[in-house]
Design brief:
Elements: H1 13-23, E1 32-35, H2 45-60, E2 65-70, H3 80-93, E3 101-103, H4 108-120, E4 124-127, H5 131-138, H6 155-167, E5 176-179, E6 194-198, E7 212-214, H7 216-226, E8 231-235, H8 242-252, E9 261-265, H9 277-285, H10 300-306, H11 310-320, H12 331-345, E10 348-349, E11 351-352, E12 355-360, E13 369-374, E14 384-389, E15 392-396, E16 416-419, E17 424-432, E18 438-445, E19 463-464, E20 467-468, E21 473-480, E22 507-515, E23 528-530, E24 534-538, E25 548-554
Parallel strand pairs: 1-2, 2-3, 8-9, 10-23, 12-18, 16-19, 21-25
Antiparallel strand pairs: 4-5, 5-6, 6-7, 11-22, 12-15, 13-14, 15-20, 16-17, 17-18, 21-22, 23-24, 24-25
Bound molecules: adenosine-5'-triphosphate and magnesium ion.
Residues 36-38, 46-47, 49-50, 71, 234-235, 267-268, 275-277 line the site of adenosine-5'-triphosphate.
Length: 562
């Protein structure tokens, strides 16, 4: 990550903890973090926060490393497709796990043996209560739970039953393995939590080898310990699981090890979108969006497809910081970071979204001239590229107005405007269709103003862009807007779901837009600026005979300001 070292912005409470631990040499080993996605969906911008934090720490401290660990303990929802997509997204963000890629499923045998350790210590038992009974026994937040009648099973019986669970003797849900902790604990997670369940499902990596699967709380802390993690960073909702995390590791008496510490931070919430993978999956499955990488999705792949840059996302993650307090971040901040990055990086191009025909009456039909357009005014020596000028050009409909007010500094009858990089042009006539709509504008250029400079120094305030009929390429432009209408779609009225809050105008397709030909040489998904209009990129599905541009972001934030 850029600007991490000695940068006051990057100081956060987690880095403070790490620095204290380094100073006291608490771990007597190198700092080691991990990013532990469950491969049950694609990564979203919230995951990016966690990635920047975990991999950022590894980059910041000497000899520190960050593992990529797939937390794959729920075979029903997980898939190799997501394992691959997640790796691609992290790489695209610019982080590298080297050879530190792990899967919880690689530890199944070890985890099984650790469960046996607990049983042998009298700290785990096989329980036959069904889900409903278990709920009754668990008690509530205000009332204590009571012991399962199976809690008194002998160690030998538990070992035998657990082996039978593994060998497939029982059906799903018949039995579970539970930790023996305290049914009267104030913390419900400590009331003899389930640590293994029977699930006869095919796993994307282990196939049918296993019919029992460890629960997250059991697998996660042990995986951290196996990997020598020092700081196990997770989101706030796991704070209440921390006593269980510590209990399991302490009971297992892992050798020569200073145990990893779990540290919680507030997850990222963004306005006008949803972030839970379950909800994102619903959007995909019910075809409210095209796919996980639909440019409207808050997924990293969707953002990439829309023309976002890794730097914009990283700089956003820096700016939001890392705290212990849940809050809601305005989507506009992400777009602000994006514009900041694109403003200096993006090539300038010309395109006309709603074309209006302009005929230059005093220009030869057969003549063409090459004008020089600046590639990027924000970068010195970015060079120029030729753009073709000819008798018939197109301008934006909004750049012409009949009966314009005095302050309309664009084209109108009798007024003069600068055609950027070309000539000064004065509107001499207009042609309307039967509905009274202006369909053609006639102009005369000042032949001595080539390049756009008035020969006599007269002031021409307005400058508009244009594209020649002779060079223009036709494109369809997908304009995206917020996916949901309200800032917190998940906080909807009773009886409604976040689906009801979908913005039906989140995608508008503009057909027959005209763009300059050099755009076709751009790499797909690399954003450029259409001058005066916004940032765009070529969609990954675009073809020569069906050019599709995605609007990455408008020039200015306009949400809610219509
Ligand atoms: P979801 O609820 O969307 O399924 P999850 O937390 O279950 O999310 P994981 O794949 O388990 O998804 O997440 C991997 C890591 O990313 C975890 O450490 C998790 O804490 C972190 N993470 C997930 N969502 C966010 C978020 N919105 N902000 C910051 N970190 C997040
Ligand atoms: Mg999770």
């Amino acid at each position: 990550m850029e600007n991490n070292n000695n940068n006051s912005e990057s100081i956060n409470f987690i880095r403070n903890i790490i620095e204290d631990d380094l100073n006291s040499n608490k771990y007597q080993r190198n700092i080691h973090t991990r990013f532990p996605p469950e491969p049950n969906g694609c990564l979203h911008i919230g995951h990016a926060k966690s990635i920047c934090l975990n991999f950022g720490i590894a980059e910041q401290y000497e000899n520190a490393t960050c593992n990529l660990r797939f937390d794959d303990t729920n075979p029903v929802k997980e898939d190799t497709q997501f394992v691959n997509a997640i790796q691609e997204d992290i790489k695209w963000l610019g982080f590298d796990w080297g050879d530190k890629i792990h899967y919880t499923s690689d530890y199944y045998e070890k985890l099984y043996n650790y469960a046996i350790c607990l049983i042998k210590k009298g700290k785990a038992f096989v329980c036959d209560l069904n889900q409903e009974e278990m709920r009754e026994y668990r008690g509530t937040l205000t009332t204590p739970g009571k012991d399962s009648p199976f809690k008194t099973r002998s160690v030998e019986e538990n070992i035998a039953l657990f082996a039978d669970m593994r060998s497939g003797k029982f059906n799903d849900g018949d039995k579970v393995l539970r930790a023996k902790i305290d049914m009267t604990s104030d913390n419900i997670h400590m009331r003899d939590p389930v640590i293994y369940r029977i699930l006869k499902a095919n796993h994307h990596r282990t196939g049918s080898e296993w019919v029992i699967y460890p629960m997250y709380d059991f697998a996660h802390c042990i995986s951290d310990a196996i990997e020598n993690i020092t700081h196990s960073i997770c989101t706030l909702e796991f704070e209440i699981h921390r006593p269980l995390y510590d209990w399991i590791l302490n009971e297992l008496e892992l050798e020569n090890q200073i145990l990893p510490q779990q540290i919680e931070f507030a997850r990222l919430n963004l306005t006008n979108t949803v972030m839970s993978k379950r909800k994102l999956l619903k959007l995909v499955e019910e075809n409210h969006v095209d796919s996980w990488d639909d440019p409207r999705m808050p997924t990293i792949s969707g953002m990439r497809r829309r023309g976002y840059t890794p730097n914009a996302i990283k700089s956003f993650c820096e700016q939001i910081g890392v705290t212990k307090y849940n809050s809601l971040t305005d989507f506009a901040l992400l777009e602000h970071c994006l514009r900041n990055d694109l403003n200096t990086q993006a090539q300038r191009k010309i395109g006309v979204l709603n074309p209006l025909k302009v005929v230059i009456d005093n220009y030869d039909e057969d003549k063409t001239e090459e004008m020089q357009a600046v590639n990027n005014p924000a970068v010195e020596d970015s060079g120029t590229r030729p753009i073709v000028f000819s008798k018939v050009i197109y301008i934006e409909k909004t750049d012409f107005m009949e009966d314009a007010p005095r302050k309309f500094f664009r084209l109108s009858q009798g007024r003069e405007v600068r055609l950027k990089y070309a000539y000064l042009a004065t509107c001499t006539n207009i042609i309307k269709n039967e509905e009274g709509e202006v369909v053609e504008v006639h102009c005369e250029i000042d032949p001595n103003s080539r390049g756009g400079k008035a020969p006599d120094g007269r002031k021409v305030k307005g400058t508009i862009h244009w594209i020649s009929e002779k060079s223009a390429i036709c494109a369809n432009i997908h304009q995206y807007d917020r996916l949901f209408n309200s800032p917190e779609p998940e906080n909807c009225e009773e009886g409604k779901s976040f689906i009801d809050d979908l913005n039906k105008d989140s995608l508008t397709i503009l057909k027959n837009c005209l763009i300059e030909p050099s755009i076709l040489e751009m790499k797909k998904e690399e954003a450029f600026q259409l001058e005066r209009t916004g940032y765009f990129c070529i969609d990954r599905k675009s073809k020569k005979d069906n050019v599709i541009l995605n609007r990455t972001v408008a020039m200015r934030d306009s949400w809610g300001k219509k």
